[in-house]
Amino acid sequence: MKLLKVIVPFIILLTSGIHAARKPNIVFFFIDDLGWTDVGFMGSKYYETPHVDKLASEGTIFHSAYANAPNCAPSRACLMSGQYPPRHGVYTVGDPRRGNHNLRKIEPTENKTELGEEFVTIAEALGPNGYTCATMGKWHLGKDPTTQGFHVNIAGREWGSPSGGGYHSPYKYPNLVTPKKGEYLTDRLGEEACKFIDSNKEKPFFLYLTHYTVHTPIQAKDELTKKYKAKPTHGGHKNAKYAAMIESMDDSIGAVLAKLKELELDDNTMVIFFSDNGGHGGVTSNAPLRGSKGMLYEGGIREPLVIKWPGVTKAGTTCHEPVIGIDLYPTFLEVTGSPAPKDYTLDGRSLVPLLKDATANLGRDAIFWHFPCYLQGYTERHGAFRTTPGGAVRAGDWKLIEYFEDDTLELYNLSNDIGEKKDLAKAEPKKTRELHKLMTDWRRKVQAPVPTTPNPKYDPKAGKSKGSKKSKNKKNS
């Protein structure tokens, strides 16, 4: 009996020690096409996101967080590989020759549509350290993410948007087949995420819940759409179906967070909320930012980002240090104690110093974008193109954009001009040269191709009535 009294407390202490030493889980909510202000904690008075807002109040909000590209596939390739686009060659979605061929002055850089097997994904880095890795939703980097380190794949293929019937069943995805009508894809992905957590609660896991929403087609549940049609709009946020899609996204996130709490995993789980590029300019407004999805202005690349790491991040803090998608890979490695892949380049910086102290800095000179492709316009404001081939750099408060068709440079001070209304390239020639050198030096380092070959089909007369050339310099939203 005395022996039992000694052994039982020892077992309890041993068990609690094992539990305390358990590696942290990671739950990463990655939303498609969600704009910088499309959530309540970033200022929307029309869209309702109570669960995400609560997460933001409990973690750190990154005010100057960026996607690696202004559209889906390259942003995701950078995230998964931890590398800038010139290293993996995924620059855009599909064809880099978008828009009217008579209006393209130069031939864009050729584009890869899949992330090569030689690149070590986050899942391939975490898996050997005992993590079960699941991706649920949009993959967009090839046919099968289980060939690149993920143990579980729900609904992920090379598709960039929902296939078949869109967001409403019946639909057919890998490991997700629903022949009956009535199910909503966003809800189902949240349910599958909860099942995964239930099944893996005894071991560390990495859950990449990469919702298709709010990517087109704009399809929502009828009852939620009616709710927003009856609600007063605010600013440029006025699309009831889009608002309903955002609420369903938020409900899905709420269900996953509730599951973590139910299983008492929330105190040992890092949670990230992020978006892959700016909001669709034909559906939402990115104001006060300039531009939209597909543009190198802030509205195309600046994203809402929240990270909650219990015991490390302080509730309700805001960080103003510029960060970018490739920073998440080294962050996850440090948080989980996973070794970096051998002989493999990671371009980002771990965000752990900022999670510990939101006023810290990462000690780097700049962050970069390289988009040597064309994207056609989809609103009258865009003209023929949302963007022509170009690149950008942000260093401190300054941002420089270069367009390769004619070597145009635009300089903005984001500290007092977040809307990029005043081009300072001529007024600040020294700063313009400084940032341009940073960018050209970086391009040499990563061997970034700059397209210069003239397009033989270019016809300057073809765009006179459309004003395509100057469209990229307008204040688009």
List the helices and strands and how they pair.
Elements: H1 2-21, E1 25-31, H2 50-58, E2 60-66, H3 72-81, H4 85-88, H5 122-126, E3 132-137, E4 152-154, E5 171-173, E6 176-178, H6 185-199, E7 205-210, H7 222-229, H8 240-262, E8 269-275, H9 298-301, E9 302-308, E10 317-319, E11 323-324, H10 328-336, H11 352-356, E12 367-371, E13 375-376, E14 385-387, E15 390-395, E16 398-403, E17 408-413, H12 429-446
Parallel strand pairs: 1-7, 1-8, 2-10, 2-11, 3-4, 3-7
Antiparallel strand pairs: 2-9, 5-6, 8-9, 12-15, 13-14, 15-16, 16-17
Sum this structure up briefly:
This protein is an alpha/beta fold.
Descriptive account of the structure:
The chain is an alpha/beta fold. The chain contains twelve helices and 17 strands. It has helices spanning 2-21, 50-58, 72-81, 85-88, 122-126, 185-199, 222-229, 240-262, 298-301, 328-336, 352-356, 429-446, and strands at 25-31, 60-66, 132-137, 152-154, 171-173, 176-178, 205-210, 269-275, 302-308, 317-319, 323-324, 367-371, 375-376, 385-387, 390-395, 398-403, 408-413. The strands form four sheets. Strands 1, 2, 3, 4, 7, 8, 9, 10 and 11 form a nine-stranded mixed β-sheet that branches. Strands 12-15-16-17 form a four-stranded antiparallel β-sheet, with helices on one face. A hairpin with a 2-residue loop joins β5 (171-173) and β6. It is globular and about 60 Å long.
